Amino acid sequence: MDxxxxxxxxxxxxxxxNFISNILPFAFPGSIISMxxxxxxxxTRVIRLRQVLDAGDFLLGNMAFLFVPTxxxxxxxxxxxxxxxxAFIVIIIVTTILTFAATxxxxxxxxxxxxxxxxxxx
Length: 122
Prior knowledge:
Layout: H1 2-23, H2 30-43, H3 53-61, H4 63-66, H5 68-74, H6 78-83, H7 85-121
């Protein structure tokens, strides 16, 4: 029964987020609003981590299966994808490089901050 409560909390946050997404005057994905809303609720301790931990672990553990309907849906648009394959490849390469650069910069900045903090504690 505890698992059902946890899933209900997560789905309630998703439902509220989709409602917010529908009333916004611009397009914004409800799933992104859900993540932000859940993060804020956890940060403010309106929802405790233990209240959604098991359901979250279950969803993360089965994430690969959740992508199957999306991939199958893409098969319907395969001709369109092949027409734009060069653009997709360029986008993939550029965003991969940007992601690597952002990650490296962030890790470097965090290491410097940690070293500075350790240096100030001595």
